[in-house]
Amino acid sequence: MRKNLCTASVIVAVLSSPMPVHAIIYAGNPHLDLTVQRAEDDLVEGSVDLDKVRLHACAGGTTDYTVEETIDPVDGYGLDIDAGDWCGVTLYWGGVMELDGDNGSPFSLEVDHASTYVPLATTINPVDLVPFDVVSGSISGSAPSVRLDIN
Question: Which domains does the chain have, with CATH numbers?
Answer without folding.
Answer: 19-150 (2.60.60)
